[in-house]
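ERR on first pass: missing label on line 2. Operator R.T. fixed the label and resubmitted. Corrected input:
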Amino acid sequence: MNYYDQHLHTYFSFDSEENFEDYLICEPEYFVSTDHFDLNNPASDGKDDIPDYPAYIEKLRTLREEYPTKFLRGIEIGVVPGQEKQIVDYLMEHPYDLKLVSIHQNGHFDYMDGKVLTMDKFQTADEYFSQMLTVLERFPEGDVLTHFDYGLRRLSFTPDELAEHFEGKLTRIFKKVIEREMAFELNAKSFLKYGNYKLYRYAVPLYQSLGGKLFTLGSDAHVAEDYQLGFKEMSQLLEKCHVDQLLVIQGKDRSLTSIPTL
Ligand SMILES: [Zn+2]
Ligand SMILES: [Zn+2]
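pass 2 clean. output:
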């Protein structure tokens, strides 16, 4: 099996209008969208953003009739501490084959909001990583920890600053990821669009030094042009770190497949 993009958005996300058909022009062997689930989302004025599950399942059913591609059900779950039970209950009734776990917001603001520019960056990052650790400790669902640096995208940190101020917390976070057999995602939005590749150059070896072996690549595309964005650059970093396989999650089935050669 060739590796395929395990993080992308369609019109089932509040912040994307992209159609499946535009992603499917190349008729990939497998396809999974991971649309946003964020309760009480400040990016939507406090609304619960939940992908329309019946419509999603119906869409996948019709696509299966039109394409040779195998379609999986995916979701990107943003978690704020306190929401764990509600989300677990929801997922019991709405099964998915791939569940990404993300920290996007804290109940008051999204970490990408301009508001963070007016705040102390070390304190903001500290709160962000604390929230991530709490979520990993209390929220039992999820296959992949996405964009570990989401809360830093607007704060311009250097790897040295991360090491000096947050290595302890990141160590606890990555140990939790490893203990839970989740994968560490290299996220193309972070890596390329927000220029955080240097933070990944620091974080990947740290995660490996603790025993971490499971990686995924995600474009985080919100438009079809970004499908598999950054795969070349992110694969190059992993190869430098002597990683030659990526994790693919297909419900209860997990497999390792070669890093794409592009
Ligand atoms: Zn995200
Ligand atoms: Zn995303």
